[in-house]
Amino acid sequence: MPTRNLRREGHETEDRVAGYLEVQGYRIVDRNFQYSTKAEIDIIALDGEDLVFCEVKSRASDEFGPPEYALTQLKQQRIRRAALAYLTFKGRRDQACRFDVVVVRWHGDRGAIEHIRNAF
User: Fold this and answer.
1) Which of 31, 53, 60, 119 has the CA that lies 20 to 30 A from 78?
2) Are the C-beta atoms of 114 and 102 separated by less than 8 Å?
3) pTM to 2 decimals?
């Protein structure tokens, strides 16, 4: 049985979500912004005037719960901290922003996308 390459699968999922967001009218401005070893923002995009920090979650089954449940309070706190670092680094501390989650539920090679705006 071949082993799964989870990192590659994760990047492919993020590519698919970035394409989905662009079709929805978002402009991708950054990807995989890393603030520390424990804080990363998957996709950063503009939706009109709002800067959107987007977390991508995916699963092939709900055996361990829905993918969005993996976004714990601790993970949300780390994303907020990374977003503040990003805004500071880019000199955009007054930028209107929000946090979205995009969930991909895989069924074979087909992925059903659910976009949760203002998730936290």
Assistant:
1) 60
2) yes
3) 0.86
